[in-house]
Amino acid sequence: MPLTKSVPVVFYFATRSYPPIRSNLIRNTVGINPRLGIARKIGKQRKKPQTSSSSNSVEEVETFYYTQRLDHFNYRPDSYATFQQRYMINSKYWAGPKSSAPIFAYLGAEEPVDEDINVVGFLRENAPQFSSLIVYIEHRYYGKSIPFGSLKKAMKNANTRGYFNSAQAIADYAAVLLHVKERLSAHTSPIIVIGGSYGGMLASWFRLKYPHIALGALASSAPILYFNSVAPQAGYYYIVTKDFKEASESCYQTIRKSWSEIDKVSKMPNGLSILSKTFKTCSKLDNSFELKDYLDSIYADAAQYNEPPDYPVSVICEAIDAAAKKTDTLGQIFEGVVVAHHGNKSCYDTNEFNLPTETDIGWRWQSCSEMVMPIGHDRDDTMFPPAPFDMKSFVNECRSLYGVLPRPHWVTTYYGGPDLKLILHRFASNIIFSNGLRDPYSSGGVLEDISDSILAVSTVNGSHCLDILEEQPSDPEWLVKQRKTEIKIIKGWIAEYQADEVALNKQVHQ
Amino acid sequence: MPLTKSVPVVFYFATRSYPPIRSNLIRNTVGINPRLGIARKIGKQRKKPQTSSSSNSVEEVETFYYTQRLDHFNYRPDSYATFQQRYMINSKYWAGPKSSAPIFAYLGAEEPVDEDINVVGFLRENAPQFSSLIVYIEHRYYGKSIPFGSLKKAMKNANTRGYFNSAQAIADYAAVLLHVKERLSAHTSPIIVIGGSYGGMLASWFRLKYPHIALGALASSAPILYFNSVAPQAGYYYIVTKDFKEASESCYQTIRKSWSEIDKVSKMPNGLSILSKTFKTCSKLDNSFELKDYLDSIYADAAQYNEPPDYPVSVICEAIDAAAKKTDTLGQIFEGVVVAHHGNKSCYDTNEFNLPTETDIGWRWQSCSEMVMPIGHDRDDTMFPPAPFDMKSFVNECRSLYGVLPRPHWVTTYYGGPDLKLILHRFASNIIFSNGLRDPYSSGGVLEDISDSILAVSTVNGSHCLDILEEQPSDPEWLVKQRKTEIKIIKGWIAEYQADEVALNKQVHQ
């Protein structure tokens, strides 16, 4: 689940992320070829802020490579193999090794880390007031941090893919951060880890597993409860639906009835030609599912990245509603597609969410091995046709794709999940779970405070990972406030840590 | 590091454990063939309590096997291989699935778990008052929980040995415990994990890594600070020395000067024959080191397992001192050897600490891969000749034995270590670190409270793992009190947990 969306070809759909299972589910239901774990990117650039004061269009970072162990949890000779892991440092604001100024560490997720640097502003925007060092670390098997020579080689067989998982990734982060501290003699600098989406899960898990390395974590839009059915399977699409319904009841009704309209037309003689023409598809539709899946992706994407100032859900709904007077249901739906793309295109590519990017390739494997989020449409009260998550066919598909079985219980076994409040109320500390409640993934997020220092910072109108993205002059007050709250909390952690240090030193010297 | 010592052939030296590196160090210094990671057992039975009321001589347990994953942290096809992991259940005292009564889980260490059941009394002695279920789980690669068919096969090459490590072992425990809860419908039962020595480290690490599975941990004599030089390398032998010095200054002086006496005699013509005769060795000594290493082992062992009511250190010192009038220094030392064995034997086997038991084989590998405790004699104020730990030769020896490099930094990277108080003061909860301060391993233990619920429970006169061993009618008051304190703390955790549960349920239903 990458963080953002952006400009070039398709404006709203860049660095976007899907519920990895969703489309697959529909396909299962509709009975077409299976597809798994999609986390696609169409275009890379997020719209740049016009006059943002603190951010640079290109951040001044130095790139380094760390010789990383392939397998932290095994002592087979091949576990000792290494790969070069990329990390980047911005020391522009840092007060230096003796200052004990903090380190902000961005934990990369399922994309090349340099892409994130372009859109994530939280670290560089706040580094000056903390005089902090910034470290961005790339996740193994993405970007330039790929073992076995190339992504193709690394992914080609089960033996080389096996090392590609979250426990290894956070152990990598532990090793890199200790190395950075050592190299820069920054032993007394507390580390705050920051991540978004899957990277947000990693940040919270990192604080839980490596509290001796990270003092605290900002986990933005981290759906850590979307595993092993801790959160309801239908939560994601329930929120997509809610977003549209709140934007416009008539828009919601139009979408809700459009699916059967599509089915009806598709069953007519030349039905697929008619649909292809209505939706100006770049190539003729092979079946009605292809179109439904495309529309589903557009709606989910708009809801997930329903960012100010434009709010794609509103933009789509306004177009759908406005077209009511001049066209029929499917004509209205098409107007939504047009504005989702920011205007007329010569044709619309129903495969635009299925381009096999590195992220797509990597995340599909991760979803099929351990990041099993059972997301389905199984409520009557969504605007989508029912399509419950089917674990059995998911497992079969993964096995046929990768030859190994998914482990849907492993995330909760290793990281926890059920009874989170009961368990963490008196254990752990210093985690911010930030969410925007309009983000469908917030349905798997931590939305209430767990203790005095494990805090939920939610915004009613926020979308996916909005708080850690670059500040924009147009940012609404609630977003500015959310970020300020987060910074205040982090400042509190650091102050408390430093006070503890002083108190302990006094004890030792007494 | 097994827990106890016992009867048959050699009374004081059963299920004993060495500082894994110690002898090796001396050998390095003396320049003889290297030997690594010894955790040997001579005989298995601890002296049985005569009239202990609550313990059974054979505990009523049922044995089960869990189909355990070979590698929790990898998705290679061979990671999916499984082995049968043994665990045992005593449900005699359990109040049943609906009671929410706790589960006491003993985390096995580097020995077959059924051996521990014979000597560890803490769980069954306290189960009645908690109405708790007892689970004993065997550590992978020991006892009947060995992958690849047999220990010989499992240990024969680097590929099959690689899965033998602590992170995998505690992940095993997580899986077994979730399985047991599921199988017995014990979802609401909090788990307290208990272990001693290496098993005590595992217990504390388990609570840190899997707080969602274990509510608390009793870590008896767990030297978690003896890694990566967090604790001083000489700590172990400093305490051995202190134990002897406190027992008798003249005994300490006699031992202290005996090493050069041995060297002196060994350099005489027929010196080794003389030494062999003086010490009644079963076969002629090959060199003086062999004898010195044997004596070193006897002293370390006596200190580590310096249990009431006999207190082997005192027994040895009394014999050494008493012989002063009738013999010379080496004659005195020999009298110590005799009483250490509880009386005259026809001959003394200087290899008795080097028998290749399963524990020895397993722990040598563990010490050479990740459990690298840099224990040396490098202080002038010990009664041993200086022999600092030499990491370089240690690494070389491990490489030549196993073909892979030790990872001396991994334990502290994964589990932490430095600045423990600063880090855990506001993170984590519910761990008891119990120690006996006469146990040389207490030099790597946690000896002061870290927070209100991470507590050190030490006794001035205690030895290794004494608190969790079976109660004896002769147990001194301080030991009885230590156990009571531990039980009181554990009761507090459970009461608090249950109160939290009630409070949370109220919140949910409000």
Give a concise summary.
2 copies of one chain form a homodimer. Chain A has helices at residues 22-30, 113-119, 122-130, 151-155, 158-161, 166-183, 198-209, 235-247, 249-266, 271-278, 288-304, 312-322, 329-340, 358-369, 391-402, 410-415, 420-424, 477-509, and strands spanning 62-69, 82-90, 103-107, 133-137, 191-196, 216-220, 431-436, 454-459.
What is the overall silhouette of chain A? globular
Tell me the β content of chain A: 5-15%
Q: Give the uncertain stretches of chain A in residue-range form.
A: 4-56
Strand order of the largest sheet of chain A: 1-2-4-3-5-6-7-8
Q: How would you describe this structure to a colleague?
A:
The structure is a homodimer of 510-residue chains. Chain A has helices at residues 22-30, 113-119, 122-130, 151-155, 158-161, 166-183, 198-209, 235-247, 249-266, 271-278, 288-304, 312-322, 329-340, 358-369, 391-402, 410-415, 420-424, 477-509, and strands at residues 62-69, 82-90, 103-107, 133-137, 191-196, 216-220, 431-436, 454-459. The first copy, chain A, is globular and about 85 Å long. Helices cover 41% and strands 10% of the residues of chain A. Chain A has 18 helices and 8 strands. In chain A, helix 9 (249-266) crosses helix 12. At the A-B interface, helix 5, helix 6, helix 16, helix 17 and helix 18 of A face helix 5, helix 6, helix 16, helix 17 and helix 18 of B.
